[in-house]
């Protein structure tokens, strides 16, 4: 994260004695990235965060095998047809992935168990409903349109308020704001489409009593369930630049120009060999002869996966794409508006329409995406041929 926060009680200096009311010492836990050379936070526990009583391997509860996108084809998956299943961790239906990132969809009403992803950061987009995100850092209340970004190694759980649907992005590294939005010291620059004020972090500590508390841990070797002697939610205070935060897609400030701007203007976050973009309602391109719709394009170095979260995607009318759809346009395939969409939008502008209503989350990857079992179970087989109608 680009800026410092302090929550709860912390001593005046780092790594000095900080005593509990009973005279004992609070236990420090440094959460740090890249071997003590990047962002970190220092957490103060009432109990030892190292005290575990049991460790056991866990078999995955969902299918996780990936299939190459062969024969090469653009794809359309209908997440609306996936069942309510599991919780916001174990109920994820794998859509697509590679060595850098895995993307899933989940619909659930069930609280998750405590979970720690030690493989990489996660970005969870709440497509509908409301959920309470609880972690060792505190609580974030999240709802429709929120991205919740969770640093590697954060112990957390999700508590839905009724039915929640989410699009999840699991990285093999760290997810951060794009470097071009930040000063060399980490402050958001004036040209950035969002800033520090738009980010919501935990506001106060979360203390939960408990003993012999299980935590599901994901590592590169698989899943393990560790049993902690005391509940991990025992942090009385923390400070630093590494913590979970929420950012609502409606706080993204679209960048517009006279003629159609390419997807990098929508970039919101970056990860290892991928980017996350937010397509939000915005003014249409305003050159008097503009074609206010994406041109046919072939991103020769990337696959493009887009989750259609809301609004009306005029460029895709007639393709079968709807709210909840996911499209995959792989490298090796040129994609663009559906037949007739260009003239239809030009005519709409003549009739006085001046804004778009689209809302979508896009992930561009710089290595090919393989297909997950959940996606293949809800694929629209006719999509690839819709440009030829």
| Continuous helix count | 2
Please state the second-level CATH architecture of the largest domain.
Answer: Sandwich
| Estimated structural class | mainly beta
> How would a crystallographer describe the biggest sheet?
8 strands, antiparallel
Structural shape: globular
CA radius of gyration: 22 Å
Following the backbone from N to C, one meets helices and strands in this order, namely: EEEEEEEEEEEEEEEEEEEEHEEH
Describe the overall structure.
The chain has 389 residues and is mainly beta. The chain has two domains: 50-62 and 82-248, Jelly Rolls (Sandwich), CATH 2.60.120; 252-385, Sandwich (Jelly Rolls). Helices cover 4% and strands 37% of the residues. It has two helices and 22 strands. It has helices at residues 341-350, 373-377; strands at residues 5-8, 27-32, 40-45, 52-58, 75-78, 93-97, 101-108, 115-117, 122-135, 138-143, 146-150, 156-171, 211-219, 222-230, 235-240, 245-248, 267-271, 274-279, 303-310, 325-329, 359-365, 370-371. The strands form four sheets. Strands 6, 7, 9, 10, 11, 12, 16 and 22 form an eight-stranded antiparallel β-sheet that branches. A six-stranded antiparallel β-sheet has the order 5-20-19-21-18-17. A four-stranded antiparallel β-sheet has the order 1-15-3-2, with no helix packed on it. The longest helix has 10 residues, at 341-350. It is globular and about 75 Å long. The model has no long low-confidence stretch (mean pLDDT 94).
């Amino acid at each position: 994260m680009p800026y410092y926060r302090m929550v709860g009680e912390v001593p005046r200096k780092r790594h000095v004695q900080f005593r509990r009311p009973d005279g004992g010492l609070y236990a420090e836990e440094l959460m740090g990235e890249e071997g003590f050379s990047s962002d970190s936070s220092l957490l103060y526990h009432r109990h030892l965060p190292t005290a575990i009583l049991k460790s056991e391997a866990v078999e995955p509860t969902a299918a996780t095998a990936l299939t190459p996108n062969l024969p090469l084809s653009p794809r359309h998956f209908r997440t609306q047809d996936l069942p309510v299943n599991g919780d916001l961790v174990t109920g994820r239906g794998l859509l697509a992935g590679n060595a850098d990132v895995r993307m899933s969809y989940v619909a659930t009403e069930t609280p998750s168990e405590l979970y720690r992803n030690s493989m990489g950061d996660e970005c969870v987009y709440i497509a509908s409903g409301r959920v309470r995100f609880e972690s060792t850092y505190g609580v974030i209340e999240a709802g429709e349109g929120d991205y919740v970004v969770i640093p590697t190694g954060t112990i957390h759980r999700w508590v839905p308020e009724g039915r929640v649907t989410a699009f999840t992005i699991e990285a093999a590294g760290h997810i951060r704001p794009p470097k071009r939005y930040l000063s060399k010291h980490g402050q958001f620059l004036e040209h950035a489409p969002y800033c520090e004020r738009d980010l919501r972090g935990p506001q106060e500590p979360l203390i939960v009593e408990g003993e012999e508390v299980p935590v599901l841990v994901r590592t590169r070797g698989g899943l393990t369930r560790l049993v902690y002697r005391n509940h991990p939610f025992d942090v009385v205070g923390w400070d630093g630049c590494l913590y979970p935060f929420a950012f609502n897609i409606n706080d993204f400030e679209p960048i517009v120009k006279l003629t159609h701007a390419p997807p990098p203007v929508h970039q919101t976050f970056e990860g290892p060999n991928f980017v996350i973009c937010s397509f939000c309602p915005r003014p249409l391109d305003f050159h008097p002869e503009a074609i206010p719709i994406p041109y046919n394009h072939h991103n020769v170095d990337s696959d493009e996966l887009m989750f259609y979260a809301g609004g009306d995607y005029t460029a895709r009318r007639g393709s079968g794409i709807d709210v909840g759809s996911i499209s995959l346009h792989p490298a090796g395939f040129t994609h663009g508006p559906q037949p007739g969409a260009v003239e239809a939008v030009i005519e709409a502008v003549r009739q006085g329409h001046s804004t778009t209503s689209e809302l979508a989350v896009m992930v561009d990857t710089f290595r090919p995406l393989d297909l997950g079992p959940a996606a293949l179970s809800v694929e629209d087989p006719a999509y690839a041929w819709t440009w030829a109608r």
